[in-house]
Description:
This protein is α+β, with helices and mostly antiparallel strands. Helix content is 43%, strand content 16%. Strand 3 and strand 4 (230-238) form a beta hairpin.
Amino acid sequence: MDPITQGLLGAVAAQALMGRRVGPRAALFGGVAGLLPDADVFIGSANDPLLAIEYHRQFTPSLAFIPAGGLIAPLPWFVAARYRAQWKPILAATTVGYATHGLLDACTTYGTQLFWPFSTRRTALNWISIVDPVFTLAPLIGVVLAVRARRRRPAAIALVFCLAYLGLGAWQEQRALAAQGQIAQARGHDIVRGEVFPTLGNHIVWRSLYQSGETLYANRIRVPWWGPIQWSEGTAIPALTETDLSAAALADPRVPKDFARFSWFSNGWIARAPGDADVIGDVRYSLRTGAFDPVWGVRFHPGAAIPTEWVERSADRELALTELWAEIIDARHWKNK
């Protein structure tokens, strides 16, 4: 998730579990440790535009790296003798804070290589969006109250709320998947593969994506906590495989390798951008709600010294918060599934 939430969750978890032994500083130790795995954003190469996406959320948030991360995080404090005297509980606090990072990333749509180095599969449970202010607010309130009162209970309550919120997301995701299956059945489609992704800051409106034959179908599904599930018509675009690349692209030895790397990053959800066929985009994310317009992707230049170009268009993304809020609370413009 976003770095603010990662730091706050690390802080509230450390305060809840180690506040009695470390005191209010447990939140500081856990918060710094919760941010540390994102240091992998500094990995990059001008000669290899895909290096960043390959290593971001790779080894640093993995389960195997937690002991090392927990040990690295408190090193600046251990310069001082007074902190070295408490090294065991401080190390426990930073390890707890560090551990929250990868586990939370795995709950998002972006995912993380949770089981590296044993597997490079990106674990993405789709229980929560990458940015969710409701979720972020809970550890913020919990850690502030816990530190001010010098008590663990507010942090513990906030941590329980966060776990319950993720549990709610898991339940809603399964309901959205069931609705996706019914939508495909009504259309006479056999689903080759399908996923649903929560939209910004809520568990009510989901983006449905499934493949039937050689076509990808994207829809929006409204899954209220009570009442009928509804959906709206979306878009259909041809799925893309390596065989669809041009002969020139296939002749460049680096292009098929980079195509495979981008396909792995996108979990296989790739298609050409309707407005620019040269851009191969990640279908999971779109600039607009009503059509596929990739937030990021790649463009190949076969024969060039660096044949792969990373296309980043996040700055052009339409948040459309008013429209999203209307989708969440107003059922009138939705079609019953």
